[in-house]
Amino acid sequence: MAVDRERVLKEAAALLTRRATTSMDEIARAAGISRATLHRHFAGRDALIRALEEHGIAQFARAMDVARLDEGDAAGALRRLIEAAEPVAAVLAFLFTENQLFEGDEVNTGWARLDARITALFRRGQAEGDFRIDLSAAWLTEALYGLMGAGAWAVHEGRVARNDLNHSIAELLLGGIRRSMEK
Fold first, then answer.
1. pTM for the complete prediction?
2. pLDDT number for residue 102
């Protein structure tokens, strides 16, 4: 029986975003495979997390493409990104936290590409005069990741309705970063 890698990663993401300490046994059961089969495809938890990270980065990059970040005004592009990224927000939040556990000097080029695209969007909004310039584009990128992760968790816990999530993230972030024309 061929193992559907996409399904295994999807099940792992669903479990790990709810409980970061989920065991490999639990992931194998959820994916409908044995622990031995899981280990043949992913040598251990670190290998699974790395594969999940690659998968999440690819999904988020596709969401950026769907959002057409270079079209229209920066605020509109940011709203489209929040909406397009909602399905992968919880996985990104888990990966962002989990990634902090891995030591080493190597820069993860996948994360760097994502960061660069989002940072460019915030810089464009600043250059167009729509976003505050007293907050760095790098900080705004981190704030976006944080709000997306917190929002995904709040939906999972039932504290926020899924239908309200994208609007809530966009309004909170844009309300804080829009440049005021008043002095």
1. 0.81
2. 53
